[in-house]
């Protein structure tokens, strides 16, 4: 039992260090605060996949009573530890991503048209901004045909994302 | 997932179709991917900046060493080491302006020269000719360069320290930031925004040279346009308009390479021109433009009145006249092993202990002229740098590691003396009476003994110098207060309250500065009161950042224009850009690891009690951070730097793979200051050579030494440049001998000419009577892949 407790503590300690490391990258003033707008990036870089709504909930939990625009590490750490330990906002496996694209590809063509994808991404769900859309297209779209071959795209993105 | 239109609700109670669910999933997934990219971009950025600033720190160390040597040994060595003094000292030009002009006019330009010919006063056709020539890679002849610089010097002499401009009716002033020798960016700005003219006035905010490969062309264009339109073209001085910085960061080298005959004269003239550049510009009495920033001591009235040209370099205090110097010799001579100041192994510096404080090497005292001579030994480990008496509410910048070297924090730009060994210089107010000897001389440990220096230093000169350094080297921070800029080693960090106070005091509304690279080319901070503008795109690496400029009209509302010079015709995606930049940054970090290999291995092995070749991630991160002394996200970088063993621990030897032949090193090097290590090493080599009667190339260079040299490669280059007094790119045997005499005097040991000559001859591989830089390096077996790569890129 003592061993278990020790290893549990060790795990938590490692988790704390990971969180600290990610936080520090954005702590420009070295005073244990980060801009609230960077919280999403930090959380996602730690391996979590919250959608925008879930992200806002997390932020609401860790913000100050009177929002200052900054998040303090003391508040971030316990919340983020919980998120990681409980494995919230799990990553999305590659095949599930494929299925998602296939749902949008109603005619089962194996690719999506530029207008189709743009419409979905910028009007449905939690819409992309113009910039996000452009960036995705620059990576995903075949510029000669204006088509998105999503199978290749998903593979490429998954490969490019080392853990 | 299923087909069909099953409907569920999300956490906000909206009704979701399958398609919507799919869309949300894709968006989430994509955003996560982008977030990871941003993270990588961010730490890539951190890496570049940390390495850049760490490099600058070492430069300051080296400079202060030479400064001290100059100040204190010029009179002692009889004939005097004019080799260094010539370079680092402000040169008093024996010729009058008129005589100089005539001399330049008499330089002949060969028939074969096909570049632009300049006559003065310049006309638009001249500047157009310059533009075309540079686009065609055609250089400007040395004679015209000299004449151009000469005319610029004459013009600048008439200018005040602070230039006052007003926004012309219905026109805008364009303000550009750092260019750093990027001709392409300058041409792009001219293309997008228009050439300088009465219709298109410009302000260039410093740092025109260094780092980029076309600094010469950049300043030729800037100075030419200034001569053509002196009322519409304003150039502020930056911290790189400084001949000591140029030695290190490439401008000196570029000039010498492009102008083999006249390079030296050009450099001397450039030195004067740089120190004559105005240090600030004010628009409509409302907008202040300086290169770096301000401090809580900045006094615009004082700045308007100082003699700015006296501040030749931020890295050296104004030279005291030799009358003030009374250096006692007795403490120095013939006692290499004075019992009082042993650097090694002693925990206590016998003097100047600044009591009880976790010390920084640079406690800037507020409101007082710098008293640079109190030495204290700080604690070895803590990087914390607290500024005394200032800024209590501010958390110290604990993460700003100051040097690559062991425990010593950096000597700052304002540090005068070069400490030896591990006693470090502290600028602080700890000058208690007990530290002054009865004759009011300060005992300064130097080398193996003590040297007495008079405490007199014209405070006014120091104050003025500090004012200028603050303008050229400071950075804004988001927390209030003002603290010494320990990261850079010079200037201050100034908070929004400092900005507000200064602007209010002078009735101004905006501070525009440069000095820091920003990803978008510009950044606004301090509630909109400070703008950073940076005009060298792709500064760190292809795709690392955009450049930008500001246009300011009557209403004084800034408009920003961004651009990015690209070598590729096809625009890189964000992923590709991040990959390229990150790859480059990671390589730089790998080199750092390699150059500290022996220390790292020794420390790793201390943790590796079972000799398994593996340690935990935490231990690895701890070791690396403490040895390399760079504040980087090591855990995040780990996957790129070291391999994991199957059990999740780190195979630490894998850090050094792919970097050259590996050999485990037994002992840990004692931590010493950069220059002392270098000189020690070189001295050991001489002794060895002398004792074994072997040419140096046969001396086995142990991996230890190879690393040290690799680490200090750039500094070796500086030393080489300094030895190469006439900037010919070659060291003659004579120059070599002179320098060695100086070095050996520094070590307090006698060395005879014969040993030095033999050393020189053995280094001169091709036996042409002189030593070029490659031979110099090769003599110490430092030929790294990177050199080859540099040469290939030209």
UniProtKB/TrEMBL annotation, chain A:
Domain EF-hand: 14-49, 92-127
A Pfam family assignment: EF-hand_7
PROSITE patterns xref list: EF_HAND_2
Organism this protein belongs to: Oncorhynchus tshawytscha
Organism lineage: Eukaryota, Metazoa, Chordata, Craniata, Vertebrata
InterPro entries listed in its UniProt record: EF-hand-dom_pair, EF_hand_dom
SUPFAM superfamilies xrefs: EF-hand (SSF47473)
Protein name: EF-hand domain-containing protein
Domain of life: Eukaryota
Gene Ontology molecular function terms on file: calcium ion binding
TrEMBL record, chain B:
E.C. designation(s): 3.1.3.16
Catalytic activity: O-phospho-L-seryl-[protein] + H2O = L-seryl-[protein] + phosphate; O-phospho-L-threonyl-[protein] + H2O = L-threonyl-[protein] + phosphate
SUPFAM superfamilies: EF-hand, Metallo-dependent phosphatases
UniProt keywords, alphabetically: Calcium, Hydrolase, Manganese, Metal-binding, Repeat
GO molecular function terms attached to this record: calcium ion binding; iron ion binding; manganese ion binding; protein serine/threonine phosphatase activity
Enzyme class, broadest EC rank: hydrolase
Domain named EF-hand: residues: 595-630, 711-746, 751-786
Entry cofactors: Mn(2+)
Region (Disordered): 322-422
Biased composition (Low complexity): 407-422
GO biological process: detection of stimulus involved in sensory perception
Family annotation (PANTHER family): SERINE/THREONINE-PROTEIN PHOSPHATASE 5-RELATED, SERINE_THREONINE-PROTEIN PHOSPHATASE WITH EF-HANDS 1
Family to which the UniProt record says this protein belongs: Belongs to the PPP phosphatase family.
The name this protein goes by in its record: Serine/threonine-protein phosphatase
Lineage, uppermost ranks: Eukaryota, Metazoa, Chordata, Craniata, Vertebrata
């Amino acid at each position: 039992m003592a061993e278990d407790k020790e290893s549990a503590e060790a795990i938590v300690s490692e988790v704390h260090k990971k969180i600290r490391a990610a936080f520090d990258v954005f702590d420009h003033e070295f005073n244990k605060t980060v801009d609230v707008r960077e919280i999403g990036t930090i959380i996602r870089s730690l391996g979590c996949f919250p959608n925008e709504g879930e992200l806002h909930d997390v932020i609401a939990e860790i913000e100050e009573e009177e929002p200052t625009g900054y998040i303090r590490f003391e508040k971030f750490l316990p919340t983020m530890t919980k998120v990681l330990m409980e494995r919230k906002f799990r990553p999305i496996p590659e095949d599930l991503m494929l299925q998602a694209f296939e749902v949008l590809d109603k005619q089962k063509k194996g690719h999506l048209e530029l207008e189709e994808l743009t419409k979905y991404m910028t009007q449905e769900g939690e819409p992309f901004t113009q910039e996000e859309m452009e960036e995705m297209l620059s990576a995903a779209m075949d510029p000669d045909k204006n088509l998105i071959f999503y199978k290749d795209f998903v593979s490429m993105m998954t490969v490019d994302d080392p853990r | 997932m299923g087909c069909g239109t099953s409907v569920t609700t999300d956490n906000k109670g909206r009704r979701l179709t399958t398609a919507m669910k799919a869309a949300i999933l894709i968006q989430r997934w994509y955003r996560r991917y982008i977030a990871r990219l941003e993270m990588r971009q961010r730490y890539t950025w951190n890496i570049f900046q940390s390495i850049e600033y760490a490099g600058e720190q070492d430069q300051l160390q080296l400079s202060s060493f030479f400064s001290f040597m100059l100040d204190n040994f010029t009179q002692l060595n009889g004939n005097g080491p004019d080799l260094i003094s010539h370079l680092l000292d402000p040169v008093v030009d024996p010729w009058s302006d008129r005589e100089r002009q005539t001399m330049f006019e008499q330089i002949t330009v060969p028939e074969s020269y096909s570049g632009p010919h300049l006559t003065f006063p310049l006309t638009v056709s001249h500047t157009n000719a310059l533009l075309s020539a540079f686009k065609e890679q055609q250089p400007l002849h040395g004679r015209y360069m000299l004449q151009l610089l000469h005319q610029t010097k004459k013009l600048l002499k008439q200018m005040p320290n602070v230039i006052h401009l007003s926004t012309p009716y219905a026109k805008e002033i364009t303000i550009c930031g750092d260019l750093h020798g990027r001709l392409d960016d300058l041409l792009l700005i001219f293309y997008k925004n228009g050439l300088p003219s009465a219709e298109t006035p410009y302000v260039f905010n410093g740092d025109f040279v260094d780092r980029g490969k076309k600094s010469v062309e950049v300043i030729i264009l800037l100075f030419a346009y200034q001569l053509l339109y002196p009322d519409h073209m304003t150039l502020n001085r930056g911290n790189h308009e400084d001949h000591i910085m140029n030695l290190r960061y490439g401008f000196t080298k570029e000039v010498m390479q492009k102008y083999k005959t006249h390079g030296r004269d050009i450099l001397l003239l450039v030195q004067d021109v740089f120190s004559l550049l105005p240090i600030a510009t004010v628009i409509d009495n409302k907008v202040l433009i300086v290169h770096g920033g301000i401090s809580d001591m900045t006094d615009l009235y004082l700045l308007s009145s100082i003699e700015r040209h006296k501040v030749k370099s931020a890295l050296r205090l104004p030279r005291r006249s030799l009358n003030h110097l009374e250096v006692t010799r007795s403490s120095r001579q013939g006692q290499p092993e004075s019992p009082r100041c042993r650097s090694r192994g002693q925990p206590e510096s016998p003097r100047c202990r600044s009591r009880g404080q976790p010390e920084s090497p640079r406690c800037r005292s507020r409101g007082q002229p710098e008293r640079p001579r109190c030495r204290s030994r700080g604690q070895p480990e803590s990087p914390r740098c607290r500024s005394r008496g200032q800024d209590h509410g501010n958390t110290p910048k604990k993460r700003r590691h100051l040097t690559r070297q062991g425990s010593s924090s950096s000597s700052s730009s304002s540090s005068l003396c070069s400490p030896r060994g591990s006693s470090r210089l502290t600028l602080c107010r700890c000058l208690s009476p007990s530290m002054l000897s009865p004759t009011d001389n300060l005992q300064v440990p130097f080398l193996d003994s003590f040297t007495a220096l008079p405490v007199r230093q014209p405070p006014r000169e120091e104050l003025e110098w500090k004012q200028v350094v603050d303008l050229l080297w400071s950075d804004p921070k988001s927390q209030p207060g003002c603290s010494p800029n320990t990261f850079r080693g010079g200037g201050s960090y100034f908070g929004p309250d400092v900005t507000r106070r200064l602007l209010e005091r002078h009735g101004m509304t905006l501070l525009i500065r440069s000095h820091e690279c920003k990803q978008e080319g510009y950044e606004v901070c301090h509630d909109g009161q400070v703008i950073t503008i940076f005009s060298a795109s792709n500064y760190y690496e292809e795709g690392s950042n955009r450049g930008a400029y500001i246009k300011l009209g009557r209403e004084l509302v800034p408009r920003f224009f961004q651009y990015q010079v690209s070598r590729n015709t096809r625009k890189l995606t964000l992923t590709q850009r991040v990959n390229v930049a990150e790859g480059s940054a990671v390589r730089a970090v790998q080199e750092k690891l390699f150059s500290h290999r022996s220390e790292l291995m020794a420390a790793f092995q201390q943790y590796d009690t079972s000799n398994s070749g593996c340690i935990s991630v935490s231990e690895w991160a701890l070791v690396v951070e403490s040895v390399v002394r760079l504040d980087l996200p090591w855990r995040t970088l780990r996957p790129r730097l070291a391999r994991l063993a199957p059990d999740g621990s780190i195979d630490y030897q894998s850090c050094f793979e792919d970097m050259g032949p590996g050999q485990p090193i037994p002992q840990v090097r004692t931590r010493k200051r950069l220059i002392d290590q270098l000189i020690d090493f070189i001295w050991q080599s001489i002794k060895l050579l002398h004792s074994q009667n072997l040419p140096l190339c046969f001396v086995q260079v142990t991996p230890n030494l190879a690393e040290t040299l690799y680490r200090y490669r750039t500094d070796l280059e500086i030393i080489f440049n300094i030895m190469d007094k006439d900037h010919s790119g070659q060291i003659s045997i004579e120059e070599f001998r002179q320098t060695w005499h100086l070095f050996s005097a520094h070590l307090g040991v006698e060395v005879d000419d014969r040993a030095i000559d033999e050393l020189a001859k053995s280094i001169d591989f091709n036996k042409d009577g002189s030593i070029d830089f490659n031979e110099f390096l090769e003599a110490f077996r430092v030929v790294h892949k990177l050199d080859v790569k540099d040469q290939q890129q030209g």
